[in-house]
Write a structure and sequence with these properties.
With 178 residues, the protein is α+β, with helices and mostly antiparallel strands. It contains five helices and eleven strands; from the N terminus they run E-E-H-E-H-E-H-H-E-E-E-E-E-E-E-H.
Length: 178
């Protein structure tokens, strides 16, 4: 895992966009984002048990697997949104990026690779993209039945109870620097 402030320089979303300003796992935790290195599925099982994740599946995001809808899906995943449940991903193969907003509304980019597990809290604005290799295989974990509904960023979402709870719990700490 590598985390840093996102550079807004022009270019494809799948490029690194590394600003040269790194972000620590401690800073991520202040945003409510939890990171774990899990060299085995048994390590994932332990976290799943501790956090009451009962369901899981696997997804491959690649042109070979998704065919002609790949580019459309990658653009869709990259639209800024939030979920009303935690988003938990364990990377089985390949690489990708999760971008999350901090309290100053800046993007923090998190590059994930094999054996990385990330937990995004409900209510955090985020987006996802593959890297320029266009391939990632991930395990998705869920507390209950899978919920896929992304709520795209809009002013009315500031009134969403999950967003309000996130802001109440995390924002004062999230404005601090790395």
């Amino acid at each position: 895992m590598k985390a840093y402030f996102y550079s807004e320089d022009p270019g494809d979303q799948r490029e690194d966009h590394d600003s040269g300003h790194p972000v620590s796992t401690h800073y991520l935790s202040q945003l409510g984002v939890l990171y774990h290195h899990c060299p085995s599925v048994s390590a994932v099982d332990q976290i799943a048990s501790e956090r009451s994740y009962r369901n899981r599946d696997e997804i491959i995001v690649s042109p070979e697997k998704m065919g002609p809808v790949y580019e459309e899906k990658v653009r869709m995943f990259f639209k800024e949104h939030l979920h009303e449940d935690e988003e938990i991903r364990y990377i089985l193969d390949g690489n990708g990026f999760f971008d999350v907003r901090n309290a100053s509304d800046e993007w923090v980019r998190i590059r994930l690779e094999k054996d990385d597990l990330i937990i995004l809290p409900s209510g955090i604005f985020h987006r996802f993209t593959t890297d320029n290799k266009n391939y990632i295989k991930a395990m998705r974990l869920f507390k209950d039945e899978p919920k896929w509904t992304p709520l795209n960023r809009a002013p009315e979402l500031e009134k969403n109870p999950h967003r309000k709870s996130y802001l109440q719990d995390k924002s004062p700490k999230a404005g601090m620097m790395t």
